[in-house]
């Protein structure tokens, strides 16, 4: 599926957590395959510009927003078993039960998920996957990868592709019927991140670095459920820590304040 991992960009644009420049050698240390990654990134972008974006723009132009929202809800729901599985694998029992309830409610009363019935009932959606699970289990952050026709990933996140596939309900639908449905799912997904992709292409000085930093930062955000720990090394490297702050002058009691503007 072409550029299926671009969705994290939407988060990045809305929260402003990504920058358009490299953060230094600490980031590049996670990208030992940069020369190959850049080539794949370029091919993915060309394919996206020539194929995915024009098809997506046509879909958005001729499909009313309420219908597109229902389509998005459907594809979110059929992929939701992966979230439930990883809830329990990470030891989040209560959240897992809530997500299971959300899936059952949306599948039944929401007509296979076309309507999001769970959210109004207080069953909020979560974002868990096997890459996050491996991080919770103690696997260190690994090399950054750009996968052909998929997009940003890491060695640690790559197994999630298989888990996400086999836990998606559409995986068990006969092939003659699932192909057009999967194609619609890709178009719907690409439509959902079009604004973020456009923002990156128009504002990033170096799109590859922007993409890499945004992905790694967003993955860290997800792994720690929105509360990543403060990196002490970053604090030590903060150039503002070396600035000397001048202590304010202490005035003697009863002595009038001297004016800083003096007539010569």
Description:
- Strand 1 (144-147) and strand 2 form a beta hairpin.
- The chain is 55% helix and 3% strand.
- It is globular and about 50 Å long.
- The longest helix has 29 residues, at 34-62.
- It has 12 helices and 2 strands, in the order αααααααββααααα.
- The protein has a two-stranded antiparallel ribbon with strand order 1-2.
- The relative contact order is 0.17.
- Mean pLDDT is 83; it is low at 1-27, 232-248 and 257-264.
- It is mainly alpha-helical.
- It has helices at residues 8-15, 25-28, 34-62, 65-78, 81-89, 93-108, 130-136, 159-167, 175-192, 194-203, 207-223, 232-236, and strands at residues 144-147, 151-154.
- Helix 3 (34-62) packs across helix 9 (175-192) and helix 5 (81-89) packs antiparallel against helix 6 (93-108).
> Poorly predicted ranges (pLDDT <50, ≥5 residues)?
1-27, 232-248, 257-264
* Share of residues in strands: under 5%
Question: What is the count of helical runs?
Answer: 12
Distance between the termini: 75 Å
Gyration radius (Cα, Å) is 24 Å
The SSE string, one letter per element, is: HHHHHHHEEHHHHH
What topology does this entry show?
Elements: H1 8-15, H2 25-28, H3 34-62, H4 65-78, H5 81-89, H6 93-108, H7 130-136, E1 144-147, E2 151-154, H8 159-167, H9 175-192, H10 194-203, H11 207-223, H12 232-236
Antiparallel strand pairs: 1-2
Helix pairs in contact: 1-10, 1-11, 3-9, 4-9, 5-6
